[in-house]
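Trying the structure run again after the queue cleared.
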Amino acid sequence: MTMKVLFARASVLALAGALASGASAMAQTKPASEANSVEEVVVTGTNIRGAAPVGSTVVSVSREDIQASGAVTTAQLLQETPQVFNLGVSETSRGQSGGSGNITYGTSVNLRGIGPYATLAIVDGRRVIPQGTSGQSVDPSVLPTIMLERVEIVADGASAVYGSDAVAGVVNMILRRNFDGVEMSARYGAGDNYNERQIGVIAGHKWDGGQLTIGYENGYHSALSGLDRDFYRGDLSAAGGGDFRVTQCNPATLTINGVNYAVPATGVTKTTAGGLVANTTNKCDNLKYQDLLPKQEHDSVAFTLDQQVGSAVHLFADGFAARRKFALRSAPATGAFTIRSTSPDFVLPTGVTATSETANYSFAGQLPLNVSSGYSKAYNFSVGGDVKLPRDFRLTATYGYGLDTDLSLSTQGINSTAVNNAIASGAFNPLIPNNPASSLAGFSNAVFFAPGWTILQTWDAKLDGPLLHLPGGDLRVAVGYEGQRFTTQIGIFQGNPAADGSYTSSYRRFARNVNSAYAELLVPIVGPDNAMPGIQKLELDLAGRFDEYSDIGAKTRNPKVGINWQPMDGLMLRASYGKSFRAPGFAQIYGNSSALFVQNYQDPTCNCTITGVAMSGGNLNLQPEKARTYTFGVDYQPAFLPRTKISLSYFDIDYRNQILAVLSDLSLLGRESQYAGTGIIVRNPSAAFINSLTAAPPAGLGLAVRGVLPNPVPLFVDGRSQNLGVTLAKGVDFQLSYLQPTDRYGDFGFGLNGTYFTEYKVGVTPSAPLVEQRNTIFNPLKLRARGSVNWRKDDWAAYVFVNYENSYTNTVPKVQQKVDAYTTVDAHLAYTFFKDGPNTWTKDLTVALDATNLFDTKPPFVNIGESVNGGGGFDPTTTSPVGRVVAISIDKRW
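Done. Tokens:
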């Protein structure tokens, strides 16, 4: 049965049932003034108009919370929520699954830390264009914070409502409507060798039956160099850690027949080679020179538009456009260069015979640092309307179109071909410290150019309303159809412009059509009219969705059941059960690129750093990820504390067929035993195996090498995406809010939001044993919480936020380490001048002082080595290297 037939049958049945019903569900006639007003109905986690999700709780970030936050982007705002983990895809944490594809340094929402692509981010309840060179996920920073009315997070499987990606939950960013006037804001903050700014303006106008609101924001933060943070370093031995400095230095370390020889500061020649000492190395801290944070600047604009046509038709539109630019400075170029006996600079220590040797060398101070730069540009708009039908039914139709273009570019990478040719001819000698500048010509001109664009078209139609009236209330139904058309082009161009170099390029275009049908039924079993002792309210929600994918041949059916039971005033018990899924992305199926990446890995067997290679590429056999979720919760609003709400939610997630990729995981060897027998980690691969990957077809795969291939290769890692992972996650979300108004001292409030994991077991393959990973490095912590105390009186407002992350175990080194808990304090103090004054320029003028990490608390020491993804004495997934930032902001409304 086709999707169109399914939708048509469901719609006809629902409408026929509504019109045939004798229930008193006919909508009452409204006054003309009210009929022409703009009605905002934005709900999260359900298709039933105007209803809250049954069985699930909503974590809400209000407009007031947004104003009190020190965040300069929407992504930073969401990461203040304890349910959102900084794992995998962000500008500061790129070492986990998904991080290798984040070459434009965007951010995705990772609820509960289960996966960077397992959370669906939507705008006003609708899908929008994803970002990244391969269009993997939505970066919340495409929306200006000044245009956010609120953010709603439903941390519960929601594929029955929204389809793919809503495994861990959904984040709904709701735009401001019905704004009347003009508001401008400006913010500047500074820290230690770091600064940021934000400028925004919003304007709106309301008229009889319509409104237009539009907002713009410019945001910026500077880069943060590793040189500016003393806790970031390679040699951690003074703190009881390892020495993770590398041997690729200047002077070099010479390797002959597997034995290392430290080249002296004066260099080494044929006449002085006899003095080389076996089993010695030179060590240096090259990664100290890289940026821990890229420089980022974004411009974003968003709008909402509504118009009532008569009393029955409501037209609407909304959209956004955003541009984000980035630049990140890399570490000095290094390499393991082969010097053959035919080279004039070939040397041998006394008594040693060999035909080749390897110079582990660094160009620090000789070649310019390579800079990755680029942009992410996106726009998305939706237009639609809804029509009121008899018996309070409503038909809604929407069309959406979005385009995203991303680019990552670097032009000063190491040209290994030019270096090797110069070594072979004697034009460049890596065994002496002071080569003339002319000998370095053409060494730093390797180009990496990775563009990508994605188009998303969506169209949907939904019919919803009351089928009939039951003793407990109206039996409501929603049925609908949703279509999606994804088109993505992935491209990579890399190589050397010199005549002796070569370019490799790959430009591929992929398309996907998705057809979906869904239905949802809200059954009010007990309501105000038939309430009884112990059951004041009892309602059941049944939802189901069918999705069909054109490119992977997948057909998925995902149900969800939710129930709410209110036994007494102020107490609500709820539960839900559902199945969710996530379709693999184009980059995971086909790969952004197929190459060998030369990378430094932390090796716990020697407590040092070794150089290995990781293979990237696609996997045509990937299947959709699947999950089963249970939640149980309670909401309590005690009568004796009328402004208090307590919420507890237990979650149980069984996530299988999870797509994992370890391409960017440079601490992978800390879990080497878990990958035994998978072929993902291979120690000391044979030269024949490596040649089968790099040799041109048909002798090999012809993979390009990013970096300088060590000889021999001590480690091979298969970094391609695979359906390997199994995750079992259980825990409790908790929320508490309290407000105590006083006539004399103002209003005092208290809030608490957090997540406590009771279990987080992971299997790296479907047959592997499940290993408890809760409270271990690069996995969800047992407890994350954010508490707040706020006070308001007259024109003053003050907030204090406390962020807490418990201690955890660093399992990467051979001797495991206990990492200290981390607590930071943020503060916000604001004063509004002359709220009722006659002066146009001072009325509604607010000045605020903000401090993020008020006490400049440094990250706790973590015994992990430096990498291109952070590390080097601190954990970038749980802490920020920025430190204290003090900011002043001004907000003016007319």
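Helices lie at 3-20, 32-35, 63-68, 74-79, 159-162, 416-425, 586-590, 687-694. Worth checking whether this holds up in the mutant runs.
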